Amino acid sequence: MIVGMWVLADGMSGMTDASATDRPSIPWTVPTVFTTEPEPAAALARHDAGLIALAAGRYLDAAHLLAQAIAEDAEVSRPAARLARAEALARSGRPDEAAAELRRAALEPVRESDQPWALVPRMARAQGLIALARGDHELARRRLSEAAAGWQRHLSHNAGTEFLANFVDLGRAPIVGLVEPGWELRRLTAELARLDKLTQVS
Amino acid sequence: MPGFTLSANCRAPVEELWKLLFDPARFPDWWAGIQTVRKDTPGEFTQWPTGHPDFPMPQKLKVDQANDRVTISCQISDIDIVWQLAESGTGTAIQVTVSLPDREAHRLDDQHQIIEESLRHLTALAEAAS
Q1: ipTM summary value
Q2: Looking at the domain A5-201, which fold is it?
Q3: Domain locations in chain A?
Q4: Total structural domains within chain B
Q5: Which of the two residues, B128 and A9, has the higher pLDDT score?
Q6: Range of the structural domain that residue B70 is part of
Q7: Distances in Å between the alpha carbon of B53 and those of B27, B37, B50, B57?
Q8: Whether B39 and A153 lie within 8 Å, measured CB to CB
Q9: What is the CATH number for B109?
Q10: Cβ pair A119:B22 closer than 8 A
Q11: What is the pTM of this model?
């Protein structure tokens, strides 16, 4: 995962670890109102900060920031942002809200820069996390395995074309949002292993 | 331009159909007459018809942003197949529109049969997964 350090506010340094471990929410340091930036940039910053909060395990903050960014029409991949928010909600123990967000992701218009091929395994993973939040380990395993199989098919992915599509559709380099199938697959493998342990214990 | 439109209601939620429609690698699981698929560049893939491993058929997958439609265009025959999904209660309404160039008009009945069968497979697969 590539994250943009330029969006970090005071007190956020050291939060770029993409750990999937749960952490308690702490007061967020990104201001919700930006007074010195044009609104599109503020919406974009909230989106990127939301992804960083998600990667840092601050799920409620992530859900809040991503909801704001989506509502403000941030120039980002809307289906991907909704899937990220669905993950944040599922990991916050709100599977019903997560499922509703996932549904909205499927109904969003999709552009080339949304990398539709990458949205499919992401959606399967979000479904897996929702199942996990509901305590349905069997369904969670099925969905996470489906996502892993999806990433497996894209291991030879060349990011160059998508990088260009981001420039054309969004008018900027994808500071966050570049897709790394290998990294996604490793994360899913770890999540499946944790699920196996969870199942053995329960 | 010859063509036809088919529709179906599926009990599966829209996201299950969405995953199958946006992933050409899954097409052989439900699209009648497709044996294998190879992903090429983003938005492009090649498919091989069942029983014809020597006939690669390059395709383009594009999304109509305004209407949220997925169009599969065959780069050899110029046949366009447009899929559209919409929420319908707890399930999904599927509509598929096929347009053939005049020179391919003789394939209209075959295409109708193939898409009708594919629509049944797609619906069944999505419902089984949900």
Answers
A1: 0.84
A2: 1.25.40
A3: 5-201
A4: 1
A5: B128
A6: 3-129
A7: 16, 11, 7, 10
A8: yes
A9: 3.30.530.20
A10: yes
A11: 0.80
